[in-house]
Each structure stands twice: as structure tokens, then as C-alpha cells.
Amino acid sequence: MTSSWLAHRRAASRRCVRDLDVSFRPVELRKYVEQAQVERRPQRLPDVEYPRPGGEVLHLDIQLDPLVDSESRLRGVALLFQDVTAAHRLQDELAVTNQRPETAFEERQSTNEELQTTNEELQSTVEELETTDEELQSTNDELQTINEQLRQSTENLDGANAFLEAILTSLRAGVAVVSADLRVQEWNRQAEEL
Question: Which residues are CB-neighbours of 172 under 8 A, at least 6 positions away?
Fold first, then answer.
């Protein structure tokens, strides 16, 4: 230890607490000292922040104990400053660490809800596709029925044309079939020879 430090300490030990910075910084201690003197019971100030030059913040637990002699006379008040910065830092880190699983759980819950919504949307889309498939199947059935009817009508028309051609061929006279605008639609060989 240096002699200047010892000299400073001796000078400080002879001064009144109220004259020292520590009496009002980091917290106003004078009222707690007076309270400890009057009530003659310990006072405790937990987790007091003490900003230091350079931006560093210490966390202190301050204990004030009245000093009473064997005859119950008050001899003074002992001030104990305990640096709990490391414990405070660990407490902060623990809070952050405890927050991570909670945040991860909330994110997982949100993802589950999104997946459930997507699943519901996909289920709805599947139902719509099934309905569309049923409609297409119904339309396909109708088209098959129409195709069958067209095939039957074509066969009937082909039969009627063959029958008409047979009639026209068997006639000895020339026969021509004309439309309303007088265009020749059909004729037999005799009409062609004419």
C-alpha cells in the first residue's frame, strides 16, 4: 500500500460521514444512518446502482448496523458496502437465458398456428378440387351422353341418306332436290344426265 493512500484513508476516517460523497452518492445514506441510530436496528438497502467514471455501473448491497456497547449506548453506525455487480450481471444473464426458451416456445407456437392455418387452407383446396373433379366427371358424363346421341343421330342420318339415295337411284325420272334459295342439294343420275 502506498503512503498517500494510507494518508487519504486516515483523513477520511476522521471526517464526518455527512462530509463524504458516499453519504449522498449512490444513495442518500444520512437518513438511513439516522434511522438506524434512532431505531437501533439494522437497515439494508439492496441492489443500489452506483455509476462510476467511464460508464461502469456497480451494484451494491448496503448494510447499516447500529453499534451499541454493553451498556446499550450507541457508539456509531457501521456501514458495509458489498459489491454484488457480478451476481446482478449473472441474474441479468439468467433472465435473458430464461427468456430464450420462452421466445422459442412462442415462435414454435406461432409456427404451429401458421402450419395449422396452411393445413386448413390445403384441406379447403382439396375439397374444392374434389368438388371440381365431381363437376368435371358430371360434365364428362353429359358429354359422353351427347356424343352417343350424336353418333346415333349420325347413324340415323347416314341411314336416311342411303335410303334417299336408293330411292333416287331407283327412279327412272330425273329428280333434283333444291333448297329454298334454289340451290341443288341432291339429284339422281337421270337428272345428272339431263
Answer: 190
Cα–Cα distance list, 49 to 56, 102, 192 (Å): 10, 28, 123
Angle at 147 between CA 146 and CA 151, to 5 degrees: 120
Q: Is the pTM of this model over 0.70?
A: no
Listing from the earlier edge strand, what are the strands of the sheet with 57-68? Answer: 43-51, 57-68, 74-83
- Bin 103: left if φ > 0, else alpha if -120 < ψ < 50, else beta: alpha
- Residue 122 phi/psi, 5-degree rounding, is -65, -40
Chain segment 94-133, per-residue pLDDT in tens = 888 888 888 888 888 999 999 999 999 999 999 999 999 9
Domains of the chain with CATH codes: 3-83 (3.30.450)
Given its phi and psi angles, is residue 48 left (phi above 0), alpha (psi -120 to 50 degrees) or beta?
beta
Write the secondary structure of 78-134 as one string of H (helix), E (strand) and C (coil): EEEEEECHHHHHHHHHHHHHHHHHHHHHHHHHHHHHHHHHHHHHHHHHHHHHHHHHH
User: Residue 15's pLDDT band (boundaries 50, 70, 90)?
Assistant: low
Classify each residue of 145-170 as buried b or exposed e, where b means 16 or more C-beta atoms within 10 Å of its C-beta. eeeeeeeeeeeeeeeeeeeeeeebee
Instruction: Look up cell 350424336; give the residue.
Output: 150
Dihedral angle sign, alpha carbons of residues 52, 56, 57, 61: negative
